[in-house]
Amino acid sequence: MERHRTEQEIELVKWRLGPITPFVFAAPRQVPVREQGARLFATVAAVMSTAGAWLVEETTAATTPDGFGALMEKRERGQLAWDAIYPVAPASTFHPRIAAKRPYAMLARAEYPCWAGDRRTYTIDLFNAANELMFPYEDDHRLWALIPSPPHFPVTDPLWLALVKAAAVVLRADIAFGGPWVASAATAYGNPRHFNALDESTRLETLVYPHMVLKADRLSHSIERLRDPVTPNSVQQFEHTVCELFDDGGYLVISMAPDYLDDNVHLGRAAAKILERRYVTDVLLRGSPKAD
Fold first, then answer.
1. CA-to-CA distance for 106 and 276, rounded, in angstroms?
2. What is the rounded (10 degree) CA torsion for 2, 6, 12, 15?
3. Is the pLDDT at 158 greater than 60, yes or no?
4. What are the C-alpha distances in Å from 116 to residues 8, 121, 167, 190?
5. pLDDT tier at 205, thresholds 50, 70, 90
6. For the chain, what are the domain ranges?
7. Are the beta carbons of 153 and 260 closer than 8 angstroms?
8. Has residue 110 got a pLDDT over 70?
9. Are 148 and 140 in contact (CB under 8 A)?
10. d(Cα 151, Cα 218) in Å, to the nearest integer?
11. Statement: residue 160 has pLDDT above 80
């Protein structure tokens, strides 16, 4: 039986994750983290430069490919968890201070790269480095996160789409996912406070999320079915905001809602059925009908 986390563990995981809405890429672990991080930095930097975005600070060590790779090497060794950089506040003041972990604060506290452009800031990081989020399973992937702030914007934004596509390709991601439910799912392991408590039988990358990148060669004939509009009743019809192939047909990017902070449960459940997976809200939310 899955052990429920203590209140202290729940708060520690929330603190380490921060109030971010990441887009997470599940990449193979065979590539050394320093090399993988350097490639990701160089790719993101090139996309940012093309779009006219800029590094807020260019003199820190992690604002070069090798410097960022070295930072992520430390992260994978268990260093630089947010509670080590920014010690956990007492319970009475915990909630206000949890808002600290955002791209600019990550630059200020730990010299992360922080790009600014189109009224948003961005950074990149390992997601769940050294299992700091206390997942009850050993992941076969190395998880990377693209972090936008604020996370409220149209998913058709050219810079955002370019970043997601480029990161998926350079990481050779097996799957990528983002939107409003990723952080909730990450904090739900052994945590029955607000959601159904997840256990080791459910891995983050096995669920369907509002915004995803999928490998096309694993979809077989499902791509056209995923593109089909969904009509839950006689008066409503929903279509995906984004559903397009890229990387010479190697990947499919799909968004089920027009804004990164939104979802569409009708499209989500339809996609989950096609992909033979479960939609994230049906797993997390109490009272939701469970996917088969």
1. 37
2. 90
3. yes
4. 35, 4, 17, 36
5. very high
6. 7-284
7. yes
8. yes
9. no
10. 29
11. yes
Plot region of 130 (φ>0 → left; ψ -120 to 50 → alpha; else → beta): left
Quick one: average pLDDT of 132-147?
A: 94
The Cα 115–Cα 288 span in angstroms is 38
Could you give the dihedral angle defined by the CA atoms of residues 290, 265, 144 and 277, in that order, rounded to the nearest 10 degrees? 40
CA atoms within 13 A on the CB side of 282: 21
Regarding pTM above 0.85, the answer is yes
Query: Would you state the structure tokens that stand for residue 275, as one six-digit string?
Result: 């992909």
Question: Strand ranges (DSSP E) for the chain?
Answer: 23-28, 54-55, 115-117, 120-126, 141-149, 175-178, 207-208, 211-215, 242-246, 251-255, 278-279
Residues in a beta bridge with 213 = 176, 253
Mean residue pLDDT across the chain: 91
Tell me what pLDDT residue 292 has: 39
Across residues 38-55, what is the average pLDDT?
A: 98
User: Which letter, b or e, does each residue of 61-87 get, where b requires 16 or more Cβ atoms within 10 Å of its Cβ?
Assistant: ebbbbebbbbbbbbbbeeebbbeebbe
Residue pair 31/115 in contact by the 8 Å Cβ criterion: no
| Encoded tokens for 26 | 């599940």
